[in-house]
Amino acid sequence: MSEFGGMEDLLQDFLTESSELLSEVDNKLVELEKRPDDRNLLNDIFRGFHTIKGGAGFLNVEAMVSLCHRTENLFDKLRNGELTLSMENMDVILAATGEVREMFGALSQKRQPPPAPADLLAALDRVLQGEVVSLAAPAPAPAAPAPAPVAAAPAPVAAAAPAGSEPDWQNLYDNLLGNAPSPTPAPAAPAPVAATPAAPAVIEGESRAVMVEPMQSLKPAPAPKTQPQGGMQQVAAPETTIRIDTVRLDQVLNLSGEIGLTKNRLTTLRSDIMAGKMDTGTLKALDEAISQLDLLVGDLQNAVMKTRMQPIGRLFQKYPRLARDLARQLGKDVELVLTGEETELDKTMLEDLNDPLVHLVRNAVDHGVETIEERIATGKPAKAVVELSATQVGDHILIEITDDGRGMRPDVIRKKAIEKGLIDVETANSLDEKQSLQLIFLPGFSTKDQISNISGRGVGMDVVKTNISKLNGRIDINSSVGEGSRFSISLPLTLAILPVLVVRVCDQPFAVPLAMVREIIPIDAKQVQEVSGRATIVVRDEILPVKSLAGLLGWAETQVPHFGVLMQTAEHSFILAVDSFVGRDDVVIKPLQNIRPTGVAGATLSGDGSVVLVLDMESLLSSNTADTSSLKTSRFVAQAF
């Protein structure tokens, strides 16, 4: 039973606001280490602790009040010049913010948190008396835990149904048409004590506040999570609410009203036509009304998408504290620079991006940058710089993690991959530098000889790539020895609506993600050449392999393909041979239930009401020889409706 009877709503509001406020305080504490005499920072941090203490006092959370009161007093003395800030005392302060975050975890479970550890309270009291108290270097901030080890999968879709099993066709049909009942949600794992609480967020405007639940029908089916290993913390359940500016909601409301008026106009025209009124004026009015409806629906779709967009800065703000604590633990001097924090991304994608970005930031600090002594010996500044940036490029978001560290050596990576049995010598010798860098994404790969509590187990980078692939994104690496490395993540703006190119093969339509399409070219049999036993075409002096879509699906070709789609994946380019094209479309993907063939991401409905399977090209290509039985079943699915 809740210990906050009658105040649950106030508790959730407190957790939402205070968690964000504490993240801001953490970042300002990191900044304060660089500018210890900045009175504005000291005042802001003082007010942050004062605000959290006030809310905790209203809810009678005595343990948090006691801890925040000491920290508040400490910053009051710092801003008044009665105390000076040292690196050791900053460790004590950051330990206090970590304890406050743990208390948030207890409150998120609607229970009173236990008092802060006596040694922490005693350390704060000694700092208040002017002593320099040395604590062990803090572990990385618990607000952003490292990704739990999960089994690497080559594709974001599940395996096909077991052979011989009969799928539930009615359930599949309902799902494809969007009528399937909502699946029963799995019970949420208990929130860890150290995690930021997953509290609902209030949508604030100038004078109004409303609460909006996310559109679950547009959210991709979550992949099952494996249990954390090695004592890792359980990741907190994702938030189920979203904060939206009321201006955007007003736009949705206005467009809904306009669509209602257009619907009334169409209803009147329908009655006129049913009554036999088929003159030129009526047909022209019908055409204008349909055009108006098409325009309004497009505007409404864009407006709804904007309500799901959130600034990526809400995710980035977790990482300065993480980088600072990890660098302190490793004896390094690292500054994390954030740029493009105002760039907006789909809320559901923000949640799924946290683990990959945590690992990449940790990797940059642990593997990427050198120790202070190594940097000075090579003529570099003692302070290393890691930059985390985000920018919108067309209809994609580009996120980059760049460091000025030691860089990566492709020859060393190939050697390690061979030693661990991940690739053979022949394969290694055939890889160029860019392909060699991609080896770090293989499951079990690690360049660390010693296993520590930070890295060395070969778990992480494969998870990063798998999670990015689930978001229909790709990750690339550029690295120069002695200069540093850059990881570039390209993501679609939203997963709710996917732009696709609809192609036709063997009289069946299929959709491929438009983000992978570079251009469409005609295929002339005279242009096809055989190189090393593979069909290729030369396009602007680039030799590209030709892959038949029918062959990838395991179908017998009914005609010679006449068209090719020049496609680009993270690793290579190729020509996808198809029979014909239907056109470009924006679709909402419905996941398949009970039957999930390899190479199929889901299904959608075309304009004429027929079912179109959406292909997962990465999975289709990585499987090399497609699972013929499962993909033939997919064909039956498409023909059934």
Automatic annotation (TrEMBL):
PROSITE patterns to which the protein is assigned, alphabetical: CHEW, HIS_KIN, HPT
InterPro entries referenced in this protein's UniProt entry, alphabetically: Bact_Chemotaxis_CheA, CheA-like_dim, CheA-like_homodim_sf, CheW-like_dom_sf, CheW-lke_dom, HATPase_C_sf, HATPase_dom, His_kinase_dom
Residues with the Phosphohistidine modification: 50
Region feature Disordered, mapped onto this chain: 169-192
Domain Histidine kinase: from-to ranges: 286-495
GO molecular function: phosphorelay sensor kinase activity
UniProt-recorded name of the protein: Chemotaxis protein CheA
Organism expressing this protein natively: Andreprevotia lacus DSM 23236
